[in-house]
Structures are given as structure tokens and as C-alpha cells.
């Protein structure tokens, strides 16, 4: 399998500049070059980029992805380190959800201050003022 960057981008739903950036920071190995000096990607690039893309969809940061890729390259290693990374990420998301729920409650409280009158009597603006 020999893919040009545009085909790889389309196959993975990743923008071309992002692919180049992932190469630059080492998430994707440098591809071979054609005789015309175009990047030529193989099946391993496709699989790795698909993995990176899925990790990004799940909200993992680039450092976490780099660590997961390093772990994936050591197939005989126990997968507890992988689980730890994903559990920690999930805990972070759960904290963010709790913070957003608190924010939602506060905004609901502020909205309840609205008397739907004139601006001069706006309860929302009063609730937001120091």
C-alpha cells in the first residue's frame, strides 16, 4: 500500500497540516519519498494515524498519545500502564463534567433573577455585578 498524503488525510479524516505536524513531533514516522520527492505513506502510517485520531476524539492529549504509542510498541508488556493512562484521563473528564454541572446550576440561578423587565431592573445584570 502506497498512499499520498491527500489520500491518507481523507482515509483518516485528518487535515494535511495536522499529518505534517504529527510527523514533525514524532507521532508519525517520517514517510518514504517518491522519486518526485512526495511523501509516500504505508499501511503502518494509516493504522497509526487512525489510532492517533481516535485518541484525539476521546480527548487524550498528545503526551498521553505519545505514551500510549510507546506502550503499544512493546507488545509483551502488561497493559496496566495503558489502563492507568485511560483511567486518569477519565477521572479528569469526570472532574470537568462536575465543574460544568456546577456552572450550569449557577447560570440557572442567575437566569432565575430575570424579571423580564427593563434593563435598569435586570436581575441578571445585578446578579453578575460585584
At the first level of CATH, the class of the domain at 5-77 is Mainly Alpha
Radius of gyration: 23 Å
- Overall average pLDDT: 92
Helix and strand content put the structural class at mainly alpha
Shape: elongated
The termini sit apart by 63 Å
CATH fold-level topology of the domain at 5-77 = Multidrug-efflux Transporter Regulator, Chain: A, Domain 2
Strand arrangement, major sheet: 1-2
Which CATH architecture of the domain at 5-77?
Orthogonal Bundle
- What is the helical fraction, as a range of percent? 55-70%
What's the order of the H and E elements?
A: HHEEHHHH
Provide tags for this entry.
about 130 residues; Multidrug-efflux Transporter Regulator, Chain: A, Domain 2; about 60% helix; about 5% strand
Give a written overview of the molecule.
It is a single chain. This protein is mainly α. It has a domain at 5-77: Orthogonal Bundle (Multidrug-efflux Transporter Regulator, Chain: A, Domain 2). 62% of the residues lie in helices and 3% in strands. It has 6 helices and 2 strands; from the N terminus they run H-H-E-E-H-H-H-H. It has helices at residues 5-12, 16-24, 43-57, 62-72, 80-111, 123-128, and strands at residues 32-33, 39-40. It has a two-stranded antiparallel ribbon with strand order 1-2. The longest helix has 32 residues, at 80-111. It is elongated and about 75 Å long. The model has no long low-confidence stretch (mean pLDDT 92).
Amino acid at each position: 500500500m502506497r498512499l499520498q498524503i491527500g489520500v491518507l488525510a481523507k482515509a483518516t479524516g485528518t487535515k494535511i497540516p495536522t499529518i505534517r505536524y504529527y510527523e514533525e513531533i514524532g507521532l508519525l514516522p517520517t514517510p518514504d519519498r517518491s522519486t518526485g520527492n512526495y511523501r509516500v505513506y504505508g499501511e503502518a502510517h494509516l493504522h497509526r494515524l487512525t489510532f492517533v485520531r481516535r485518541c484525539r476524539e476521546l480527548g487524550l492529549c498528545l503526551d498521553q498519545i505519545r505514551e500510549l504509542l510507546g506502550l503499544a510498541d512493546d507488545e509483551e508488556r502488561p497493559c496496566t500502564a495503558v489502563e492507568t493512562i485511560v483511567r486518569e484521563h477519565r477521572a479528569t473528564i469526570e472532574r470537568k463534567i462536575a465543574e460544568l454541572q456546577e456552572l450550569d446550576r449557577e447560570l440557572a440561578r442567575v437566569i432565575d433573577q430575570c424579571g423580564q423587565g427593563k434593563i435598569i431592573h435586570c436581575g441578571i445584570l445585578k446578579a453578575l455585578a460585584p
